[in-house]
Amino acid sequence: QVQLVESGGGLVQAGGSLRLSCAASGRTFSVYAVGWFRQAPGKDREFVATIEWSGSSIKYADSVKGRFTISRDNVKNTVYLEMNSLKPEDTAVYYCAATTKTVSIVVLNLRAFYAYWGQGTQVTVSS
């Protein structure tokens, strides 16, 4: 089992920045990749970014490329999502998720590959 806890959400004005953290515990040695997803009210949960635990591969959704940066600290077992130039449409609950499956980065934008999820952290961007 892998446990995930997100933190760092909050209220920020458009153009501002936030850094989210996802702390992993439990069988972290089995984690292959960690991703961030988000869900706005009335919408499906969508992919934001993912990183292989080795750090060798990273993938972003087109909507956040150039604004968000995903990174990890293997010593702290933590994955970060640095969010800059925030827009009101970035408002959502942000979830981190982990997979222990060794799969191509190509498919790691799909929720089905992630077995472990955090409880989510709210990000609100005001205009």
Distance between the termini: 40 Å
The biggest beta sheet reads: 7 strands, mixed
Beta-strand portion reads over 45%
Q: In which range does the helix fraction lie? A: under 10%
Q: By helix and strand content, what is the structural category? A: mainly beta
H-E order: EEEEEEEEEEE
Mean pLDDT score? 96
Computed CA radius of gyration, to the nearest angstrom = 13 Å
Strand element count: 11
Describe this structure in words.
With 127 residues, the chain is mainly beta. The chain contains no helices and 11 strands. Strands 2, 4, 5, 6, 9, 10 and 11 form a 7-stranded mixed sheet that branches. Strands 1-3-8-7 form a 4-stranded antiparallel sheet, with no helix packed on it. Strand 7 and strand 8 form a beta hairpin. It is globular. It starts with a strand and ends with a strand. The mean pLDDT is 96.
Lay out the secondary structure.
Elements lengths: L1 E6 L2 E4 L4 E9 L6 E7 L6 E7 L5 E3 L7 E6 L4 E6 L8 E8 L16 E2 L3 E6 L1
Would you kindly provide a brief summary of this structure?
It contains no helices and 11 strands.
Task: Give structural attributes.
mainly beta; 127 residues; 50% strand; 0% helix; seven-stranded mixed β-sheet
